[in-house]
């Protein structure tokens, strides 16, 4: 899965004022990512507000994204949730054309045991014809997928090929890297962790801020992969504040506002999310002026 090395971006889903999906802007966003050097795209990860899309809308977004990309860079589909039977059904019904893997978030709200998490992913792995990337994000799911569970899944299922980990637990990252199968991928799920995780042995980042700043994020990952951490630290430091501002009022509200500022769509989101407030808007505007 070398195609999933480097910088990937969890695409936002642009909306029109009436709440419908803005496919024209989605097309512009995809072209922007490719032109600015992003290595691969994730369609309908959690940043894509997938929880508020209907099943038909998800199919439309996946199909549109695959058609627009047209094989130019790899594509990953986000298919996850907390109802295992339903997710397995979605995986089985998914049209894989144009996609190289699926990304599946650990079950949220239920707070399953480690055995429950294992059995959830076992069912997905057995149902999927595509490679599966696990996604551990305890801050949103309410539970952490342990290193032991991650490594167990990696060893038991050849199509479980990597994990996007946003736990912020560097001891856990080190344990995964020590015990994992050789080709299993550790991917940062948190923009500020890209440099330190890649220094440990992660292969890249699935980014949020990369929606709006793809050139900086892709360059950061490239420098880290080349071992040029001196130059990478400059970009890492430059991105810290703007990344923090993206999460002040819930993701993806902040990064959608930045996209609006650079002329790619609007900052419309679907309830229960709302656009960011004036104070955060001003802070983002000031920071954009500083880094550009």
Task: Give a brief outline of the structure.
This protein is an alpha/beta fold. It has 12 helices and 8 strands. Strand 6, helix 7 and strand 7 form a beta-alpha-beta unit.
Alpha-beta classification: alpha/beta
Look up the CATH topology. Answer: TIM Barrel
Number of helices: 12
Give the CATH superfamily.
Answer: Aldolase class I
Order of helices and strands: EHEHEHEHEHHEHEHEHHHH
Largest sheet: 8 strands, parallel, barrel
**Overall radius of gyration:** 18 Å
The share of residues in extended strands comes to: 5-15%
* Overall CATH architecture: Alpha-Beta Barrel
Give the domain tally.
Answer: 1
CA-based shape: globular
The total count of strands amounts to: 8
Helical content (DSSP H or I, runs of 4+): 40-55%
How are the strands of the largest sheet arranged?
1-2-3-4-5-6-7-8
Task: Give the uncertain stretches in residue-range form.
Answer: none
Active site: 135 (proton donor/acceptor), 164 (schiff-base intermediate with substrate)
Protein name: 4-hydroxy-tetrahydrodipicolinate synthase
Subunit structure: Homotetramer; dimer of dimers.
InterPro entries: Aldolase_TIM, DapA, DapA-like, Schiff_base-form_aldolases_AS
């Amino acid at each position: 899965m070398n195609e999933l090395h480097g910088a990937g971006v969890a695409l936002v889903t642009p909306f029109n004022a009436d709440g419908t999906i803005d496919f024209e802007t989605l097309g512009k966003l995809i072209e922007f990512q490719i032109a600015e050097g992003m290595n691969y795209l994730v369609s309908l990860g959690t940043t894509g507000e997938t929880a508020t899309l209907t099943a038909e809308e998800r199919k439309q977004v996946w199909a549109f994204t695959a058609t627009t990309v047209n094989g130019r860079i790899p594509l990953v589909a986000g298919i996850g949730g907390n109802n295992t039977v339903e997710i397995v059904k979605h995986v089985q019904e998914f049209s894989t054309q144009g996609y190289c893997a699926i990304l599946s978030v650990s079950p949220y709200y239920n707070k399953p045991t480690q055995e429950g998490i294992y059995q959830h992913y076992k069912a997905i792995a057995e149902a999927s014809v595509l490679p599966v990337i696990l996604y551990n994000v305890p801050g949103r799911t309410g539970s952490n997928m342990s290193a032991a569970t991650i490594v167990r899944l990696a060893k038991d299922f050849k199509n479980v090929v990597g994990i996007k980990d946003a736990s912020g637990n560097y001891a856990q990252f080190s344990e995964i890297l020590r015990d994992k199968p050789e080709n299993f991928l550790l991917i940062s799920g948190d923009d500020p962790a890209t440099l330190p995780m890649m220094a440990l042995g992660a292969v890249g980042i699935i980014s949020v801020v990369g929606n709006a700043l793809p050139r900086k994020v892709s360059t950061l990952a490239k420098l880290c992969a080349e071992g040029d951490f001196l130059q990478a630290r400059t970009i890492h430091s430059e991105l810290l504040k703007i990344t923090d501002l993206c999460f002040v009022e819930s993701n993806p509200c902040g990064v959608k506002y930045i996209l609006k500022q650079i002329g790619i769509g609007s900052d419309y989101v679907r309830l229960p999310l709302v656009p960011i407030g004036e104070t955060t808007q001003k802070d983002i505007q000031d920071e954009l002026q500083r880094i550009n």
